Automatic annotation (TrEMBL):
<keyword id="KW-0805">Transcription regulation</keyword>
<keyword id="KW-0238">DNA-binding</keyword>
<dbReference type="GO" id="GO:0003700">
    <property type="term" value="F:DNA-binding transcription factor activity"/>
</dbReference>
<dbReference type="Pfam" id="PF01047">
    <property type="entry name" value="MarR"/>
</dbReference>
<keyword id="KW-0804">Transcription</keyword>
<dbReference type="InterPro" id="IPR000835">
    <property type="entry name" value="HTH_MarR-typ"/>
</dbReference>
<dbReference type="GO" id="GO:0003677">
    <property type="term" value="F:DNA binding"/>
</dbReference>
<feature type="domain" description="HTH marR-type">
    <location>
        <begin position="12"/>
        <end position="147"/>
    </location>
</feature>
<protein>
    <submittedName>
        <fullName>MarR family transcriptional regulator</fullName>
    </submittedName>
</protein>
<dbReference type="InterPro" id="IPR036388">
    <property type="entry name" value="WH-like_DNA-bd_sf"/>
</dbReference>
<dbReference type="InterPro" id="IPR036390">
    <property type="entry name" value="WH_DNA-bd_sf"/>
</dbReference>
Length: 166
């Protein structure tokens, strides 16, 4: 597709607004869902950290920070709060005592189960409303966003306008 600059700007704004709105709605509902199940002491950043830890089972602080796309200095207080609240535990590496691994406690595993119930409910409801073709198209567009973002990040000159007609 080729766009005139004004059309591209409108399209970009619409897409960004929809993306942000959908993300906020999902997070608001997740917060309410967790609260209904007795989890009221976690921030969304802490819930996100718990989700990543659950996927990796036992993870170093550096690997978790990388996965979450944040710095170790930003992650450290999140992990400290989670440890204090009883959601995660740290374990020193047997061979290199400088390295600590983070894993979920039973309490953290319970939050993961509750969070997955929310995600499963959301996906199940969406699945009832879309066709397989629509779903495949959506995944394709997400793949394109991811790969095109990587292409742009790799370019030295980020001022290139792409396929825009003036």
């Amino acid at each position: 597709m080729e766009f005139k600059k004004s059309e591209l700007n409108d399209w970009a704004i619409d897409l960004a607004n929809k993306y942000i709105s959908a993300g906020h709605q999902i997070l608001d509902v997740k917060r309410e869902f967790l609260a209904k199940h007795g989890v009221t002491d976690l921030t969304l950043h802490e819930v996100r950290a718990i989700r990543y830890i659950s996927q990796m089972k036992k993870v170093s602080l550096g690997t978790l920070a990388n996965k979450m796309n944040i710095t170790i200095s930003s992650l450290t207080p999140i992990v400290q709060r989670l440890e204090k609240k009883g959601y995660v535990q740290r374990e020193k590496d047997k061979d290199d005592r400088r390295i600590s691994y983070i894993s979920l406690t039973e309490h953290g595993e319970e939050v993961t189960k509750i969070s997955m119930m929310h995600i499963t409910t959301l996906i199940a409801r969406i699945a009832k409303k879309v066709t397989e073709t629509e779903y495949a198209g959506f995944l394709h567009v997400l793949d394109l966003i991811e790969s095109t973002s990587a292409e742009i990040a790799a370019e030295e000159d980020l001022t290139k306008g792409g396929d825009v007609i003036e």
